[in-house]
Structure formats: C-alpha cells, structure tokens
Specification:
The structure is a single chain. By secondary structure, the chain is α+β, with helices and mostly antiparallel strands. It has one domain (2-167): Gcn5-related N-acetyltransferase (GNAT) (Aminopeptidase), CATH 3.40.630.30. It has helices at 12-25, 43-46, 95-109, 124-132, 159-167; strands at residues 2-6, 53-59, 62-71, 78-86, 114-119, 136-138, 151-156. Strands 1-2-3-4-5-7-6 form a seven-stranded mixed β-sheet, sandwiched between helices. A hairpin with a 6-residue loop joins strand 3 and strand 4 (78-86). The longest helix has 15 residues, at 95-109.
Length: 168
C-alpha cells in the first residue's frame, strides 16, 4: 500500500540514501548539487519550520520517494520545490506527478503564490515531468545555491492562472 506522510527523523537516512542514489545514477554526485548538502542526512530538522514541508512516499514501510518545499527569496511569495526523487522501483507509475500536485496544494495552503525549482539537464525525466506539470523555464536567478544546476523553472500557483493553464 502506497502512502505519503510527513518526513520524520526515522525517514532521514532512507531519503538521504535515495537522493544520493538518484544523483549518482545521473552522474550528479558532484559538488554544487544536493548530493553534498550539509543538511541532507538530517532533512527532518531542516524542514521542521512553518515555512517548509517535506513528505515521503512509503510503500510497505519502505521510503520510495519524497518531495519538499521551502521559502525562496528569489521571487515574491515564492517557495522552492525541493528534492523530488523516486526509487527506481516506482518510477513510471505517475507518482512524480502525484507528489508535485500534493506539494503544490501544500504550498497554496501555506499562502505561496509561486513555486520555483532548479534541476539539471542530466535529469531528463524530471525536466519532462516539470514541463508537463505546467512549470515554465526561466533564466538562472541570482539566488541559486546549487551552482551545478543548469535548468530553472517557475509556476504560478494562484487560482486564476491555474484555471488559464488548465484551459490551454
């Protein structure tokens, strides 16, 4: 049975391992990526804040995915979708789209109006999902932390814009 639940310290090691495995598989186990983030082994502490959230996807008590959000100062009323990763065993079943929809709804509940994300050309499946989910590519913002990332996206989360995007 697949379910999502808020990240807890009990999930930290599993989600850190999952993120590193995904980055390594795409040759992004290099400086300037989340692979070397100081907080990666203790994400529950980083996301334990009213302006942040992280959820794990769990199947039979095993963490098989996750996605988070945190405030992003590059744009007004904006959060950054962070660390969307899936285990190979669940890729291709639509869970990435489900996690995006869930984290977008959480962002709206937290009163964010825009969602930013950064990724890399090597993560082709991720780029595809982001574009199909309504994110538009933008120039590199000045406030980018992960220097190796080379693709940047933004999505408006306000209802009127969402309605227009749905009609298109």
């Amino acid at each position: 049975m697949m379910r999502t639940e808020p990240l807890t310290p009990d999930h930290d090691a599993a989600i850190a391992r999952l993120i590193r495995e995904n980055l390594k598989a795409c040759h992004l186990d290099i400086p300037g990526t989340a692979y070397f983030d100081e907080a990666l082994d203790h994400l529950s502490g980083f996301y334990d804040c009213p302006s942040r959230a992280y959820y794990v996807l769990v199947e039979d008590e095993r963490v098989v995915g996750g996605v988070g959000l945190a405030e992003f100062s590059g744009f007004p009323h904006c959060c950054e979708m962070q660390k969307l990763y899936l285990d190979d065993s669940v890729k291709g079943h639509g869970y990435g789209y489900d996690l995006i929809r869930m984290i977008e709804e959480k962002a709206r509940q937290m009163k964010y109006r825009q969602m930013y994300l950064e990724t890399h050309t090597n993560l082709q499946a991720a780029v595809h999902i982001y574009e199909k989910s309504g994110f538009r590519e933008i120039p590199r913002p000045d406030s980018v932390i992960h220097s190796t990332m080379n693709r940047f996206f933004l999505k408006d989360l306000t209802p009127s814009v969402m309605l227009k995007q749905t009609r298109l």
